[in-house]
Design a protein that fits this description.
Length: 235
């Protein structure tokens, strides 16, 4: 079976399992990784738009929160809210674009481990979140050290595809007015966009869901086309 085919099947299995009643628990480490990417999407978008990114909180129930402050306008507030919904997909596509050769897979895994450690040091403020990020960093560093190049590339691409598809875990959330974070109800990102720009929260949930799907399909199609032949690339 070709690597691209294995990758597509693994991605499809992840997307299906996430829709099962206890699917997010079955894929708990990947679910939390998607939550981390979601919260970093909020925080980094806030930084890019001139606000201050204070911290991220990751909780054992799979929920999370990014805390930021500033005085942005309505559009900036909406973009920061959307940044969390689109962040994992964009991160996954970025990994696919940067992992053009199996030769660089180990280096990319090490880079991801370093980024997780920096996130834990700079923005994570609760013990569970710090422990989770450091655990993932150790796993990625070990994978980079001990796995053959082809397997390391598969692990890297699987993480990328998981992030591209992680909007499946947010599907209900996109069409909800509230979210429960560590047992406390908060307005959903779709509701925050609706408060800033008007129109119902479910309208913005649909817009973000369709955009996430389009981006995910484009990213996965790219890696399938580039690696589907299994031929070495020149240059």
């Amino acid at each position: 079976m070709r690597p691209a085919t294995r990758l597509m099947l693994a991605g499809a299995a992840i997307a299906v399992i996430w829709q099962l009643p206890y699917g997010t628990l079955l894929l708990y480490p990947l679910t939390l990784l998607a939550t981390y990417a979601h919260e970093m999407g909020h925080g980094l978008t806030a930084l890019l738009l001139g606000a201050s990114f204070d911290q991220i909180l990751l909780h054992a129930d799979g929920s999370g929160m990014a805390l930021w402050h500033g005085n942005p306008g309505r559009m900036t507030t909406a973009l920061i809210a959307a940044g969390g919904l689109l962040g994992p997909t964009l991160a996954g596509i970025g990994l696919l674009l940067l992992s053009g050769s199996a030769r660089f897979a180990r280096a990319m895994l090490v880079l991801l481990a370093v980024l997780l450690i920096l996130s834990a040091a700079v923005w994570s403020r609760n013990a569970f979140g710090i422990g989770f990020l450091l655990a993932w960093a150790i796993v990625l560093a070990l994978a980079a050290k001990v796995l053959p190049a082809a397997m390391a590339a598969f692990v890297l691409h699987l993480i990328a595809v998981t992030l591209c598809l992680s909007w499946f875990t947010d599907l209900d959330y996109m069409f909800s007015a509230q979210a429960v974070v560590n047992g406390v109800a908060h307005p959903s990102d779709s509701a925050m966009i609706a408060q800033a720009l008007g129109l119902p929260y479910w309208f913005w949930g649909a817009v973000v869901a369709l955009l996430s799907l389009a981006l995910a399909l484009l990213g996965i199609a790219w890696v399938s086309r580039e690696r589907g032949t299994g031929q070495p690339r020149r240059g």
